[in-house]
């Protein structure tokens, strides 16, 4: 089964290709207008009940799952999330386990989690780093 078919079978991921297209446009021409458009597309998907794939760490001694974080060169930690299975599989060597999560829920949790700077959406390809300020904009808190 192709990765595209996996995405099509999960209704929560249908429509996330609009996010990928908006990020691609932002990568081609970085501007405040393109950023605003991309954030608007993400907000629309969130309001539609869209989901993301989130990478998790294997359970530790406490048995709980922790969201996988990556550390950037500046030493800051970011959660990694994906718009679809094809994006997640591009870095399959480093992602061990994933599950689907509601966009609003993961964005809200990221804003409240002190140990991270924000979320990296699609860290392997159609990448967008959403710091807490941008997440608050998407959530309508600013």
Write the layout of secondary structure elements.
Elements: H1 3-9, H2 17-28, H3 32-47, E1 51-57, E2 66-67, E3 69-71, E4 77-82, H4 85-89, E5 97-102, H5 103-112, E6 118-121, E7 128-131, H6 132-139
Parallel strand pairs: 4-6
Antiparallel strand pairs: 1-2, 1-4, 1-5, 3-4, 6-7
Helix pairs in contact: 2-3, 3-6, 5-6
Descriptive report:
There is one protein chain. The chain has 142 residues and is α+β, with helices and mostly antiparallel strands. The chain contains six helices and seven strands. It has helices at 3-9, 17-28, 32-47, 85-89, 103-112, 132-139; strands at 51-57, 66-67, 69-71, 77-82, 97-102, 118-121, 128-131. Strands 1, 2, 3, 4, 5, 6 and 7 form a seven-stranded mixed sheet that branches. A hairpin with an 8-residue loop joins strand 1 and strand 2. Helix 2 packs antiparallel against helix 3 and helix 3 (32-47) crosses helix 6 (132-139). The chain is globular, with a radius of gyration of 15 Å. Mean pLDDT is 85; it is low at 1-8.
């Amino acid at each position: 089964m192709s990765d595209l078919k996996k995405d099509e079978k999960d209704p929560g991921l249908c429509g996330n290709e609009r996010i990928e297209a908006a990020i691609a446009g932002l990568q081609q021409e970085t501007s405040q207008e393109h950023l605003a458009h991309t954030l608007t597309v993400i907000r629309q998907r969130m309001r539609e009940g869209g989901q993301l794939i989130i990478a998790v760490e294997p359970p530790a001694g406490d048995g709980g799952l922790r969201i996988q974080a990556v550390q950037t060169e500046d030493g800051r930690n970011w959660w990694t999330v994906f718009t679809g299975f094809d994006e997640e599989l591009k870095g399959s060597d480093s992602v061990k386990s994933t599950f689907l999560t509601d966009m609003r829920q993961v964005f809200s949790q990221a804003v409240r989690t002190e140990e991270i700077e924000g979320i990296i959406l699609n860290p392997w390809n159609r990448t967008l780093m959403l710091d807490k300020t941008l997440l608050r904009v998407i959530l309508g808190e600013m």
